Amino acid sequence: MPTISVLNQQGTSVGELELSDGIFGAEVNQAVMHLVVRSQLAAKRQGTQSSKTRSEVRGGGRKIYRQKGTGNARHHSNRAPQFTHGGVVFAPKPREYTICVPRKMRRLALKGALTSKVKAGDMIVLDKIVLAEPKTRLMVEVLEKLAVERKALLVLPERDVSVLRAAANIPGLKTAYVNTINVLDILGHDKFIITQAAVAQVEEVYA
Question: Which of 16, 29, 46, 120 is the most exposed place for a label (fewest CB within 10 A)?
C-alpha cells in the first residue's frame, strides 16, 4: 500500500496514512484519462452555433445576368458562397457534442488520475482544515505553509461555509466534495489537497 504523510494546517507532519491500492495505487491509463477529459470538455460545449447556407440566405432569387455574352462566369444567384453576403459552405449547425464513456472507464480514469498525483508527489493530505473565521487571509496563510504556489484543488468531506467563503476569492484554488471530484479537475490543478476524512470517503465510495 502507498503511504503518505499527514500534515496539519501549519505544514508540519503529524503522522502517516496508508492509502488504498485500488484507488491510489491503480493503473495509470493515459488513453482512458484522455478520453474522459475529452468527454468532459465536450459536455461543456453548448452546440448552438449556426450559420446559413446559400439556400437559407435571404435574396438571390433572380439570375444576376444573362447566361451568355457578358464575358463573365456563369452564375444564377448572388447568394452563392463566393459572393459578398452569400451563404456559408458547409455551414455549422446546432449539434450535440456528447461523448459517451462507460462507467468502468470513468472509474478507471478517476483512479488513474488520483494515482498519478500520489506518484508525482502532488497530493497533500491534511488531518483537518478549520478556520476561525471565513477570511481569505487565513486560507492564504494555510496555502503558504503548505507550499502551494500554483493551482490547487481542495477536497472537503462535507460542506464548510467558512472554508468555502475563504477560498472563493483565491485565484487558482477550487473547492470540491468527494462526490464531485472528476478527472478534469484533478489533472487540471497542480496540487491535490484533501483532508484525512475525505480520503476515507473516497476509498469507501470509489472502491
Answer: 46
Regions of the chain where pLDDT drops below 70: none
Cell numbers at 33, concatenated: 484519462
| Alpha carbon distance 207, 189 (integer Å) | 23
Tell me which CATH homologous superfamily contains domain 3-31+101-205. Ribosomal protein L4/L1 (3.40.1370.10)
Residue 40 has a CB neighbour count (10 Å cut-off) of 18
Q: What is the DSSP letter of 44?
A: T
Question: In the Cβ-directed half-sphere of 103, how many Cα atoms lie within 13 Å?
Answer: 1
Cα separation, 199 vs 18, whole angstroms = 10
Q: What are phi and psi of 176, to 5 degrees?
A: -150, 165
Residue-wise pLDDT tens digits, 54-93: 999 998 888 999 999 999 999 999 999 999 999 999 999 9
CA 47 – CA 15 distance, rounded (Å): 49
Can you tell me the distance from the alpha carbon of 87 to that of 52, in angstroms, rounded to the nearest whole number?
6
Per-residue model confidence (pLDDT) at position 71: 94
Q: Are 66 and 20 contacting, i.e. CB atoms less than 8 angstroms apart?
A: no
- Of 198, 199, 136, 129, residue with least CA distance to 173: 136
